[in-house]
Amino acid sequence: MMNAAMNEEMKACYEACIACAQACNECFDACLKEDDVDMLRDCIRLDRECADLCAFAAQSMAASSSYFAELCMICAEVCQHCGEVCARHEHEHCKRCAEACFKCAEACMSMVKRMSMQQRTHAEA
User: How many other C-beta atoms are found inside a 10 Å radius of the C-beta of residue 100?
Assistant: First the structure.
């Protein structure tokens, strides 16, 4: 059973995933309109992967999936990497995307850590 703190943590994670998916989709679209698309190839690829994974992680939380913690762990890793790649570029859309990615990675890791602590507490009881 989830406590109120866990529910708030999950809500924050869910909202961060949705915001990150949106920022990645906007960055993806804007990158394709830039003059030097080839330079942005890694950014574009990661934007797509990150957006898809964030949307899937949010869906798994909304559906109370048995695997949402594992999905959120992967989501955090991909968001961190996507944020690092986007942060290398000077485009405003890349900067916004990087910020959303880092926020999502932090929210996902925070929720996963809280779940892990909660599971240990229940195991010890």
Answer: 27
